[in-house]
Task: structure prediction
Amino acid sequence: MENEIVFSDQLLQQIRQAQHVVVLTGAGISAESGVPTFRDAQTGLWERFRPEELASPEAFRRDPRLVWEWYAWRRELVSKASPNAGHLALVELEKRLPVFTLITQNVDGLHQRAGSGVRFPVIELHGNIQRTKCFADCQIVDTWEEDGELPPRCPRCAGLLRPDVVWFGELLPAEALSAAIAAAAGCDLFLSIGTSGLVEPAASLPYRALAAHIPVVEINPHPTPLSSLATFAIPAPAGEVLPALVKAVWEV
Ligand code: BV8
Result:
């Protein structure tokens, strides 16, 4: 078969023998679902903004309506997207491995829609765009009055509503981050998939695995700062690599 991906026997053996595999995903795993990554040019009316200019409390304070509408556009985009073969292969890994920890930087919820999180909860480091919270008291809000004003107001305190995501300059959820750090340093194999590795503290996770002498696999069609340090670097799309990897390991 042309372009068949060949994996090293060492990698296949390591997965077969692993008790605990950790996967960190970034926007690249959702690229094949049609969800633009952060490094892709913003499309349409958002092309004149950089994500970092919109994904921050300062941007929200400066122009809450603009930020709310950016997230509404992304929510719409994500709701029309479907999990791809890469997401589904990670569901297989969760089913087949003794222990599996999926850590995601993505806020699109596609891992859960694919079926991840049944045996082990998905660790969402940066929140989830489908959840909304009050900017004033940070409490999650499920329903609110739509009176045409954007952003809508919190039904409890009339504060502005915002997406339940971690913005630049905001702390990550402490429990999620400490679980991710513990998993990265305590597993047998760490896979970094579809991330440019530029945003901290998520970007430090593969290096924590390397520091603990845990083999690290990178799956990314483009080089990143991790590529030269990873134990295995597979320069190909996740939607192709991951199903082929599951097939090669379990000969399904
Ligand atoms: C924090 C949610 C403590 C929102 C996101 C100065 C001032 C303040 C802070 C900082 C500072 N300097 C540094 C910082 C820390 C800052 C940071 O890291 N900044 C960067 C830009 C330098 N981090 C923070 O602020 C974090 N909080 O540190 O708190 C603190 C507090 C105050 C002051 C200081 C410190 C919070 C970071 C979280 C931000 N929120 N998302 C939203 O989504 O709207 S981050 C967002 O961007 C994503 O969640 C993701 O994490 C990141 C994008 O990264 P990737 O997922 O890797 O996506 P990217 O597009 O970059 O890359 C895609 C990759 O996929 C590419 O490599 C591509 O080749 C590959 N690819 C493409 N197709 C495929 C593929 N791979 C596989 N298959 C394919 N088919």
User: Anything to note?
Assistant: The chain has two domains: 1-35+83-126+172-252, 37-80+128-165. The pocket of BV8 is lined by residues 26-29, 31-32, 37-39, 52, 55, 105, 107, 126, 165-171, 194-196, 198-202, 219-222, 224, 237-239 (CB under 6 Å). The longest helix spans residues 64-80. The two ends are 16 Å apart (CA to CA).
